[in-house]
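Input sequence (242 aa), recorded before submission:
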Amino acid sequence: MKRISLSLLVVCLLFTLGSPVSAGDFTFALAQDGISTSGLWNSLGPSAESFVSTLAREEEKNRKIGGIFATGTGLVLLGLGALYNDEDPADEEDGKRAFYTTGGIITALGVCRLAIPSYVEFEYERILKIEDPHKREQASYATLVNVANQARISRLSAGVISGALCLYFLNRDTPSYLSDDFDRYNALIYGALCVCSFLVESTPEKMLKEYQEGQSNLQKNSSFAILPQLDGTITAVYTYKF
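Predicted structure, token format:
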């Protein structure tokens, strides 16, 4: 009975904590001709809106997949609770309660994840309603910065939690109903998660750095000048070094 409760607690903890590292690399299509009609790209490189658009699409896909998986897992646990039986009536009642509680929580989390759009999805929908291209770019950059900061805080927080769990499993006295390998494996897993959380940047952080580096390179390679002409007129000249 204690093993069942502990296993269900670990499952619920994994669903509530989430992954401290965003899986996979971000990808987006570069405009080959440098012409933008939708406002996603300017003539010199990717805009902040293009990064936010990519984040919103990826977040929507991950949110739906995660929501379906969580809801399905919760329903399975509820079904196992209905089928669970034990010779000891007290243990059977405790087992059913553990299955029902964990299954209900995970199912509720899955339904909420499916129903509620994420911050970046909500902000991207708002950005699409802005007609002025300059204001759209400013709003997109602000959203990109906020998402990257939130991702960084979540990543570091997950690293701290994983590190604390690693130390906990390393130093605690293993219960008699568990083998010593149980704590060692958990310490190894949480230790690896802790290292990854601190060393591997999230996708939004990488995107923000990519955008800022691109803007910095544009400023270094470009110049703007107003030149007087012999006829008294002036000419604005913008140069860019490829």
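Checked by second reader. The beta strands are 41-42, 45-46, 222-228, 234-240.
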